[in-house]
Amino acid sequence: MNPIAFAVPVFFVLILLELWVAHSRGVSVYRLKDSLTSINVGIMSEFSKAIGGLISVIMYTLISDRFGAYTWDVSNPMTWIFAFLLYDFCYYWVHRTGHEINILWASHVVHHSSEEFNLSTALRQSSTGFLFRWIFYIPLALLGIPVKVFVVVGLIDFVYQYWVHTQLIGKLGWLEYVVVTPSNHRVHHGQNDYCIDKNYGGVFSFWDRMFGTYAEERDDEKPVYGIRKPIQSWNPLWANLHQFAHIGRQVKSAENWRHRLMYIFAKPSWTPEKEDATEVFEKNRFNRFDTHATAGLIRFAFVGTIMGAALLMVYFYLQSRMPQPLRIAYCVVMVFAIAAIGWRMTQARQKSELRSSEGHGHA
Amino acid sequence: MLNSLALTDALLCLVAVWLASRSALSVGYRMAFTLLAIPALLGFLRFSGIYPLETWHPLFTLISASAALPMLAICVLSPESMVATRRQFAIIFLGGAMLLGLLIGGLGKLRIYDQALALLSMLLILISTIKSGNHVRSMGAILMLTGSVMFVLKVSVPPWLMPGDFLHLAMAFGLLLVAPNNLKTLKESSTPEPA
Fold first, then answer.
1. pLDDT class of A280 with cuts at 50, 70, 90
2. Contact between A168 and A25 (Cβ < 8 Å)
3. For residues B19 and A44, what is the distance between their CA atoms, to the nearest angstrom?
């Protein structure tokens, strides 16, 4: 069974715990629509990985079997420690290029699209990342690190990153120098000027200090979460695809091939006029995205999301017994069903906007 | 005792490292030379018996042929291009070319891919340098091409030189000649040809 299946219930329990702690402290760190979207993005990511995610393990195994230079003793703890360190180092570069190369940002941006920061944000994972990520782990395969070790250290790295998505834990003293902490990661999710392109580490934060991308959380300027070009949607499918669509439009309208390539491979802030067109962030001008969904619609989205999570667990449980075409069909149907929930929630806003503009027209 | 392959690989490695360390060269050149130095170093370690990594030497040779030589060709053909002058694009180009080399030449076992790319790159360097009238660099390209052809034809001078030696020597001297070797050449290579 997929090991993520065991983690999912723990993730939900921790979300409930965070909600309770926040409530008892009298702070609000959750918005239902945002959290439902985060969970739906997470569910969609797992279904898309179920279809295409094996790519990474297959490629890793092929390269490791053919070109792996060394034989590693799996019973030696040093093998695991070394593999974990190297995995996290490669993760740093996966993550950094995910922010600094536009086509890779298109895949990763979904994780940053939430304007809240809580444990549900950690579930907002990309549905297209599996296409690129394995490339960055080729060094482990070339060293011959066994695929079992690769998968396990990858899971540990992934699960570790869950707990750092919270506003309820402050700075952690000397730990800030060694590992990624909630404070460190809040900066990464901020859109304030000092937060842009900072703190890429997965488990260890010393990579950031080594490569000059570390920034400490400021007490005088708390991070404002989200992205500079907000997606203005609760639709998980659009959250995954909007930047690809944006790049497509940019490439289509580009004047020459140089610009086309720049739109794909340069930093997301590149424009033909300016190498880095990032504007100064004005906190006062930032408005969180919201919609005016009815109570009925919220209930529908809530129940739909819970059902989506339940059907994901059912999938994890049954997948080994399902024929391949049925697995693919199951995943495709689920991806669209989950997208429909987000689409319906977003559409509510459009309707309300329409009504309000009609109202103004009548006035 | 060091055999001839180890010695010629060491020479090629030293030449490539020296060229890669020249700060006057553009980032594209320097990265191409660095990538060429890696299989040479692995070859030296392998053939000398100091630290043989049997799978890595052929792998990095094919990766180098499918990425470093095309990169070198781009630097000679279009020294002002983004790939030749900007680190981010040089890395992206090399990363993409290395990945294709690994997938097609390595996993797909289609060795014609990297061999054809290497030959095509050398031919392009030759044509470009002939057109620009830079005879020294043309000689370098001819030398590299000759070494590659001799390697493919398995020419050897037993017991002193094996087919790989001709390739290593031709590449070492060829790279020395093809690289912009003085400021005048550097300036020429970065200035568009007059109509």
1. confident
2. yes
3. 50
